[in-house]
Amino acid sequence: MPEFELFGSPGPRGLPPLTEYLDIFDVDMMRRPDESNKMQHHTAFYSSDQLVVRRGQEFQVNITFNRPYDPARDKIAVEFVIGSSPQYSKGTYIPVFPTKQRKGSWEGRITNKSDKTVTMGITPTANCIDHSRDLYILFNPWVADDAVFLDDEPEREECVMSEMGLIFHGSSDDVSERNWNYGQFNYGILDACLYIMDRAEMPITDRGDPIKISRKASAMLNSRDDEGVLVGSWSGDYTYGVAPTSWTGSTDILLGYASSKMPVCYAQCWVYAAVFNTFLRCLGIPSRVVTNFYSAHDNDGNLKTDIILDDNGRIDRNLTRDSIWNYHCWNECFMSRPDLPPGFGGWQVVDATPQETSDGMYRCGPASVKAIKHGQICFPFDAAFVFAEVNSDVVFYSRSRDGTMEPVKVNRTHVGRMVLTKTPGEMTRRDITDQYKFSEGR
């Protein structure tokens, strides 16, 4: 006997018409340089086909549906996914809702509706991370909540947006200068900088922290431990590469490393500092190259430069381990330091030239410039080493026949005689020695 189903009243049989569902036809990220996103986020100069924005600041996305959006019955969310295994708890899966009733870590709102197209404003948090290649989210020195906020427009324009620089060398009484093209906006440079972090196997969750990024990069910019970007050479023989003095910009170095996956030959201190500057500025971290004249290298960490003399009063090169360079270049980058007591944020020294190991790797910093000036050498990272570079006493020893050492002379003003960087907005030098040491130590 056939079954019979009794309906109380007529009703629909089958799926509702497709026009009832809200479906996405198109998403316009508004990524062109002349559109509002890149203009408002100071990223119009990046040679990238993708959208480049800065965290902590709203950007716009146009979403076109199959029918007009009705907030009374339609619920939408924009999902941002980072990495292959995104997790909400790790900040790698971020749903953004356009209503105040349901909030996520990123803010969203409808800023305009026109027929079937909705413009949604999205504001990433000021400490977010980004590891995608479809949307680049950089540090934002224009936003007060960002760790790299720099409340000085001329300094910010110079240390984030300027592509040309001056690097000083020579001696304190005969200063020379090199022009350098940082090229942080050139095509492929942003991807090359992200590749450096990938090559370092830097956890995605650490990439929103300028302290961790600058410390990791100070190791990755040299090749001593980890097949990093640059091979250093002071031998004078540059047969298998480019002489350090021949480089005039960072672009060929970074693109060469990203394409070959091999360290680039060769570098000395100013090349390390210049390429590091490109890396930091490209990611949105304010940075500048600094030159310290008569820069000490404290080999044993005793905060002195020990010079051993032979019987004729000349330096005994076999026994003397410490040294003083005519000049040495490093970087300063600007950031808050929540890991230190209040007052020690601001400019931080980072150095990619491989001099001494720090936590088992050839790297240096970030070390607070204010901590260095005030002798707070126990603060992380490597403040004692940088203090000795700029402010150590030079102690001369005579060596007796029984091997004992006796100090015969102390020079307290030779090391760190002058510290220079480029003047914001000008192709001239700026003396910042007083930021590293008090006048009585000069």
From TrEMBL:
PANTHER family assigned: COAGULATION FACTOR XIII A CHAIN, PROTEIN-GLUTAMINE GAMMA-GLUTAMYLTRANSFERASE
Pfam families listed in its UniProt record: Transglut_core, Transglut_N
Keywords of this entry: Acyltransferase, Calcium, Metal-binding, Transferase
Tagged with keyword Transport: no
Domain Transglutaminase-like span(s) in chain numbering: 261-354
Keyword Glycoprotein: no
Coiled coil (residue ranges): none
Protein name: protein-glutamine gamma-glutamyltransferase
Cofactor: Ca(2+)
Molecular function terms, GO-annotated: metal ion binding; protein-glutamine gamma-glutamyltransferase activity
Family assignment from sequence similarity: Belongs to the transglutaminase superfamily. Transglutaminase family.
GO biological process: blood coagulation, fibrin clot formation; nervous system development
EC numbers on record: 2.3.2.13
Lineage: Eukaryota, Metazoa, Chordata, Craniata, Vertebrata
